[in-house]
Fold each of these.
Amino acid sequence: QSLLTQPPSASGTPGQRVTISCSGSSSNIGSNTVNWYQQLPGTAPKLLIYSNNQRPSGVPDRFSGSKSGTSASLAISGLQSEDEADYYCAAWDDSLNGYVFGTGTKVTAL
Amino acid sequence: EVQLLESGGGLVQPGGSLRLSCAASGFTFSSYALSWVRQAPGKGLEWVSAITGSGDGTYYAGSVKGRFTISRDNSKNTLYLQMNSLRAEDTAVYYCARRQLGRFYCFDYWGQGTLVTVSS
């Protein structure tokens, strides 16, 4: 059972803004930075956002992250068909002394 | 170019053992902490284990503690996961992942994964 809760799905038409939430607790999101991973169908996960809102080199600026308290969110501004994927939030958990992933959100471009 | 290449997956009976390997290239292997992350068929990601760059620190998820052992050989640029007492619920694609240098805990490179199937 994951300690980070995400909605199972999100969708939008191309060009729309889509937001995904990630709810945690004081031992994970509340104490540590949040990362987001994108997993395209049939491929390995890819780091999309780290340290709450930082984009690795090569990640388009339509992806942005934020964190407040024990929750975080990922926004995709200007959804594109190639953004159809599963998205996972993640953070270190001080109580478990381990890394925890969110339940995952499948994004669909309508 | 950073590359992580897993191997060693396959079909194993419940209660059996398997050792996974992850061959790394394109970076100074001993400088980086590494992890194993798994994904059961049709399910989400689950962190399994981590090891420091020197190998003197190891961490495990509660679901595998006491059954799995992570290790590394810095002379061979290879990460390992010894899996014992395997259960059906250990069936998954196992990825090795490199922790980004610095104070932020995240994985900046991933392998392509190797499938482990536990079934009689």
Amino acid sequence: EPEVTQTPSHQVTQMGQEVILRCVPISNHLYFYWYRQILGQKVEFLVSFYNNEISEKSEIFDDQFSVERPDGSNFTLKIRSTKLEDSAMYFCASSGTSGVSTGELFFGEGSRLTVL
Amino acid sequence: AQRVTQPEKLLSVFKGAPVELKCNYSYSGSPELFWYVQYSRQRLQLLLRHISRESIKGFTADLNKGETSFHLKKPFAQEEDSAMYYCALRTDDKIIFGKGTRLHILP
């Protein structure tokens, strides 16, 4: 069964460094998402992406964040200059095989980011 | 404001007893609601959605627009139901989640 895959599973970085988290969505899906979960808190929406552009983003998704689908298979989240409060589990999700997004999101296993 | 509220952080239930996980929402439009589940060491996955009106693994959830609720129920809990349960609301181009309720089934 196809799955969303994420790399790395865990990344430790120094504050101020750039981080790129990678995701390979399910191949025929058209909608892509990033969520994050700070330890002990809820799963928070960051950004949705469709047709090669951001369709919606949250207030968390400020200028330090960017997303890209560089090659038709990968979907990346970049944090330009990490802060301590960026430490969290980051989840990628994908959905939708036609022009209509569904509510069934298929999640990856997450990338744990630790900022020191 | 769009919001999903799950008032219980932890719910402990004896095996065989009924389960009810509470969820309330706030949304000005026509809501589309879901329950997602995360079992230990597994990824977050869809359990059920209100438009399907189906029972999955013995769980059901009814949308009550008057009470703005979408509680998850199961008549007889099983040990394998122990997991983290998230109520979710679809708004525009995103799904927003509640804080989650950890369901612990006692033997």
